[in-house]
Amino acid sequence: MFNRYDILVNSIYMQKQNFFDKNIRPKAIFFDSFSELTDQKFTHKKHYFSFYSNFSDLNSDSNSFKKNITSHGLLEVEKLEKYYRLVFEKCADTWGFVPIIFIHFPSKLETREQFKQRANSIKKTIEKLSAEFCNLYSIAIDDDFVDFAKIGNEEYRKLPYHYHNETYEEFVRKIRELGVLNETK
Predict the structure, then answer these.
(1) Long-range pairs for 89-94 at CB < 8 Å and ≥24 separation?
(2) 15-24, 34-43, 90-99 — which is least confidently predicted?
(3) Cβ distance 81 to 102 under 8 Å?
(4) Which of 8, 130, 139, 161 places its Cα 20 to 30 Å from the Cα of 65?
(5) Rounded Cα distance, 87 and 118, in Å
């Protein structure tokens, strides 16, 4: 059913974690837009458990998938503000105002209009919420810094969400520029 078992293992691990442990206060919390941008919700028909995954990470042509899994599609962008607010409030209730750094995956290389629109909606939602949460920082980079990866196999280098080193370096620069992380050497 899964093309990538590393995704399955990670998903199981994440579901078993207590990320909101008051005894472990993070210096910063990082979110990115990739999951909300591309992941879909799937439910097992018999056991009723749900998980989120990129459709291409699943073997959707298999008989097992067709027989056992229901796809519910992408998260509705209209509901993201509510979901983000709940998570950011939970973070504040647990740790106080720890910096929350939200990284927006650039959509410059994306050819599908649906995902370009989703990226824009997510960015607008986070920017709106950053006016409400003083510890929320919305990080997007200029398209001039966005280019395809130069390493990896040919298929990897063509993917719209795998970037050139300069793209990642610009994200690092912008995060450091915030001045909210106490960096030590």
Answers:
(1) 90/20, 91/20, 91/29, 92/133, 92/135, 94/20, 94/21, 94/22
(2) 15-24
(3) no
(4) 161
(5) 19
The answer to whether the beta carbons of residues 138 and 126 sit under 8 Å apart is: yes
- Give the model confidence (pLDDT) of 94-122 as tens digits: 999 999 999 999 999 999 999 999 999 99
Contact between 52 and 126 (Cβ < 8 Å): no
Chain centroid to CA 90: how far? 18
Confidence band, pLDDT 50/70/90 cuts, at residue 77: very high
Q: What is the DSSP letter of 33?
A: S
Q: How distant, in Å, are the alpha carbons of 28, 80, 107, 113, 170 from that of 116?
A: 28, 16, 6, 5, 20
The CA distance from 118 to 122, in Å, is 6
Helices 113-132 and 77-95: crossing angle in degrees, nearest 10, is 40
